[in-house]
Amino acid sequence: MLLRSTLILVLTTGAALAQPALAQSAMVDRAVLKQYCTGDYLTYCGNLSPDGPEVQACFRHNKSKLSPDCQAAISSYMKAQRKG
Questions:
Q1: For a 10 Å CB count at each end of the chain, is N or C smaller?
Q2: Is the overall model pTM greater than 0.70, yes or no?
């Protein structure tokens, strides 16, 4: 679930949320995830379609290899999702 949500947000441009404050927060989260995880995607999973289930499995498989910044961005995103 974490990887699916993260990858979808990182690699696609999801629909904007209805509430402006939440939409801005989601865009910031997406931007942070994209900034810190795109390199990991390209390194470990770049041969896969960005929105496919294979990428989710790839990120899970390579979780320990992800950069510290990407891991922190994912962790921060998940904490924010639990609050919201």
A1: N
A2: no
